[in-house]
Amino acid sequence: MPIPSILKSTVVALAIASTGSLFAQGTPINAAAFDALVAQGPVADAATIASSTWATKIKQGGTLRLGGTQTSNLFSLLNEKDGKARGFDAGVAQLLTRYILGDGGKVQFTQVNSSTREQVLINNQVDMVLATYSITPARAEKISFAGPYYTSQAGVLVKSNNNTINSTNDLAGKKVATQAGSTGPAILAQVAPKATVQEFQTHQEALDGLRQGRVDAYVTDHTLLLNALSLGTGDAKLAGAPFGAQDPYGIGLPKGSDGVAFINGFLKKIQADGTWAKLWTISIGQRTGSTAVPTPPALP
What we know:
Blueprint: H1 5-19, H2 31-39, H3 46-50, H4 53-61, E1 64-68, E2 71-72, E3 76-79, E4 84-86, H5 88-101, E5 107-111, H6 117-122, E6 128-134, H7 137-140, E7 144-159, E8 175-179, H8 184-191, E9 196-200, H9 203-211, E10 217-221, H10 222-230, E11 236-238, E12 243-253, H11 259-272, H12 275-288
Parallel strand pairs: 1-5, 1-6, 8-9, 8-10
Antiparallel strand pairs: 2-3, 3-4, 6-12, 7-10, 7-11, 7-12
């Protein structure tokens, strides 16, 4: 069976990471290229905006209220010097903001984590949540999802000097971290039922638990683990290849919102014109040694 392109890029990054010498650890994002890409993004015409009550409300309000994160090196990291967030998620959010408002900077930001993402939508605190947000049936009962705009799998991270855990097969009897409110607990229940699972509120807390030796491994989305490795600390490594079902990332919206169709139309547009591929290359590819641009996920 041919390896899907999203897996090809992951395998390339994994292989390079294992050698240590060629992995582009700690490579900062090309801010100028990122900002230029957002500034050149498409802008919706009046008829397209008028076709969606969700988009019309944002247009009339003059800002897009975004629930997200700003601590993910590859997906959305705040540059404290210029006050701008950059990365793959940040780029999609800013391109969508430009598509609606003509300016990618017109964002009102609210910090979320894996335990608060649905609630901020239900409480009408944000217009959308874009934060490496896996689409699941349980979440879809409470909110609606546009996308997927990206897919990943699960992975195992261990300390660099750990030679006893080489895959999920070695997690039995081990203390394993994952994020509360994420898909991690369900994945561990399936692939490592004999592991002792410890749930942390944030990705950073789970990483700290691993580095401090309070847990033996950390299981979460493989892309988030690539993100941790891209920081270049050198004290962690991936244990085995990514595993499990493809994990689709969606854009969370209020339940029943017609923003789903509007955003999916936008995503199809940036896939077709090459913007998606350019954003992936700038945000992830150039910074993790991955040269094979993945195929964007199919959209409904």
